[in-house]
Amino acid sequence: xxxxxxLLLAGIALPVRAQGPVTPPVPETNVLLxxxxxxxxxxxxGGLVAAQEPLASAAGAAILRQGGNAVDGAVASAFALAVTLxxxxxxxxxxxxLLWLPGxxxxxxxxxxxxxxxxxAIGGGMAVAVNFRETAPAxxxxxxxLGPDGQVDRTRATRSLLSTAVPGSVxxxxxxxxxxxxxxxxxxxxxxxxxxxxxxxxxxxxSDSLAAAAPRLQADPVSRRLFxxxxxxxxxxxxxxxxxxxxxxxxxxxxxxYRGPVADALVGAMERGGGLITHSDLLAYRARLVRPxxxxxxxxxVLTMPPPGGxxxxxxxxxxxxxxxxAATGLNAAASLHAMAxxxxxxxxxxxxxxxxxxxxPVPVERLLSPAHLEGLRRxxxxxxxxxxxxxxxxxxxxxxxxxxxxxxxxQGGLAALTTTLNFPYGNGISVPGMGFLLNNEMDDFTALPxxxxxxxxxxxxxxxxxxxxxxxxxxxxxxxxxxxxxxxxATGSPGGSRIITTILQVLLNRMVHGxxxxxxxxxPRIHSQLWPDRIDGEEGLSPDSxxxxxxxxxxxxxxxxxxxxxxxxxxxxxxxxxxxDPRRAEGxxxxx
Length: 593
Ligand code: DON
Known about the structure:
This protein is an alpha+beta fold. The chain is built from 20 helices and 20 strands. It has helices at residues 2-13, 54-65, 70-84, 154-159, 169-180, 185-198, 204-218, 221-227, 240-252, 255-258, 260-273, 279-284, 311-321, 326-329, 334-354, 365-369, 371-379, 500-512, 518-523, 544-552, and strands spanning 42-44, 48-50, 94-102, 120-122, 125-132, 200-201, 236-237, 288-290, 293-297, 300-304, 403-409, 415-421, 479-482, 488-492, 527-528, 536-538, 557-559, 568-571, 577-580, 591-592. Strands 2, 3, 4, 5, 8, 11, 12 and 20 form an eight-stranded antiparallel sheet that branches. A seven-stranded antiparallel sheet has the order 1-19-18-14-13-10-9. A hairpin with a 2-residue loop joins β9 (293-297) and β10 (300-304). α2 packs antiparallel against α6 (185-198) and α15 (334-354) crosses α20. The longest helix has 21 residues, at 334-354. The termini are far apart. Bound molecules: 6-diazenyl-5-OXO-L-norleucine.
């Protein structure tokens, strides 16, 4: 009887394999402002900025109004986030940017394209990615986080100055703006400088987040002075030292950070506190323009961040899932979730074992995206049963608002997707004396010991070992989607540690396969699986019958806290744009130009 019931359940849950190519059901004009769907995106006749914190969205929107393009808007908003969202916005961290601009870009005349050309021509314009991931200092070693017992010293790996990798944000934002922006850097940074110098009313979210991080911030006298006790919501937070650092950058570009007083203060703190970063590490740091990774999904070109970013895993997931008729099995149905979770485990297996910084280790990008490899992975999915991950379950990864993603559309259809991070909320909690900003703890994204879980439960391999100048593997994957004829369509991305890739996957499937509008696609409940720990994390909103069906297939489910924050925009075919912030974490709406 029980076996018959299981079979019946499994039968209902069986994924429908498509015969031949599946036609994209995406309605071209899926604006749906009239309440046909439950969620409504923000509309703009021109451009629009969707960031986690509304003063930072407004900073980007103001720059669009002043004639800036999507890159100017994204850079303005990112510097503003360094002021208004100190838990994730930053000067002391790193990130990735993906952009598309119409027509030929000015990058060559500006001397940005010497050597290999990173620009990818598409839709009458050019797409390019900016890699400003942090690098390991020259004195870093593969075993630097191992204690005398041979195990990873988690405190050293996440809370000490040793956990800080050479910051990349200022170099990356300045490079993107110099090569692709339309306005002077000082104009683009003016709103951030104003927010730091004049102050802004502290939100409930910021006050709560500072209170939650107080134990870590308390340990550093500089952070304690800057951020504690947490300001009461509504009181003005002025950050004079940060304003001075921002002014130096506005006047001198990246030299205002990697040389001079800011660099001296950062290196001084390292010398006194046992960190590794030297003046020569700072001078050697380079943000890089790189060619985006590209793969078609149901006729739509998808462009995303190559390794060390998370886009390769995202494209593998789209590739594995492309032939499954998820529209027929249905959004949030057990059969769809089973196929997605099994695909996630397979893609994370490749990620854990094979991915690292392609500048230093060979990463078989083409093989991992080849139809033969993807078909091989797809064949491993048993439609009726979960394939268990054969080792211990890692400690649960708990997620904070440590990373932040923003998306910008401009009135010419230009798009920018920018994800930036300190790794943990407020990084390692340590601030640079006199300079007003916090340092990242991105060294924990490396493999400290093969097979041992990092803060996100990821068990990574030798390809991601610590080595001088190397960039740690990241899950951040700012992504652009184009219409089948090549015109720009969606910019998206997310924070969420290892959940970043699966968050973006679901936003894209919800929009492109299930026909939800952008706001619904972002708001819908999500799942996550990453091979280890061997379980599906499901947000609130997963139905009890889906849970039961998945359990009957051998899955373990955990009710997970909210995952990701996929602030996204979409260019409308007839002009104008739509945007949506992620209701999970956003402190206010997207802001039209
Ligand atoms: O680059 C990465 O994959 C991580 N350092 C990102 C951390 C993160 O997204 C945490 N956010 N909630």
